Amino acid sequence: MRTAIQAESCLRWAVRESLLRYVTVIAGGTCTVDGDAVKGDDGIFTFPLRAAVQEGEDWRLSFGGSVRLEAHHGLMDVLIKDPELVVGPGRGVLATHTPDGELLALVALDEAAPTDDGDALVWADVPTQLASAAVDLFGTVYPAGTGMAPIAIRVSH
Fold first, then answer.
1. Residues sharing a CB contact under 8 Å with residue 73, sequence separation 6 or more, in sequence order
2. Which residues pair with 126 in a beta bridge?
3. Phi, psi at 69, each rounded to 5°
4. 94 to each of 71, 100, 118, 127, 134, how far by Cα in Å?
5. d(C-alpha 106, C-alpha 134), whole Å
6. CB count in 10 Å sphere of residue 94
7. At residue 7, does pLDDT exceed 80?
């Protein structure tokens, strides 16, 4: 059975604290938030939910907005745009849209089991590891499997 929900819900992700500190403080670069994404005072980016579709035990969640991290006169350019998450029992993948519209896996999720708080499905502080497909996006600084910031997702009923 396939169900779809549209609700005010979101993905919250800080990407990686040391990367944000490097880009904005050490390298003198910029962090630009665009579209519906928001950067909180806590350094966590919030992407609003655009669509959520459940198929069996799997979810496909699409979020809006973008975050761009730029440094070294554009030589470092990390764009996270309109992220999408496919998550099922105990696993998942968070991806971004590339400038040419393709999906690129950013991080893998383990222990991705939601809880139902009565108003929403909640994935809280889910650990993430850099996907091999995203190593080049992050300038080959981090190898595949590197721990990234945990994510949190809320999908209202």
1. none
2. 151
3. -110, 120
4. 24, 18, 25, 12, 11
5. 5
6. 26
7. no
Average pLDDT over residues 80-104: 93
Contact 60, 84 (CB under 8 A): yes
CB 100 within 8 A of CB 71: no
DSSP state of 43: S
pLDDT score recorded for residue 75: 87
pTM check: above 0.85:
yes
pLDDT of residue 86: 94
Of 22, 14, 32, the C-alpha closest to 94 is: 14
Task: For residues 111 and 136, give the distance between their C-alpha atoms in angstroms, rounded to a whole number.
Answer: 26
Q: How far apart are the first and last CA of the chain?
A: 17
What is the number of other CB atoms lying within 10 angstroms of the CB of residue 19?
21
Please, which contacts does 21-30 make with residues 24 or more away whose CB atoms are closer than 8 Å?
A: 22/71, 23/69, 23/70, 23/71, 23/76, 27/71, 27/72, 27/76, 28/71, 29/69, 29/70, 29/71, 29/72, 29/76, 30/68, 30/69, 30/70, 30/71
As a whole number of angstroms, the distance between CA 53 and CA 73 comes to 40
State the Cα–Cα distance between residues 48 and 57, nearest whole angstrom: 22
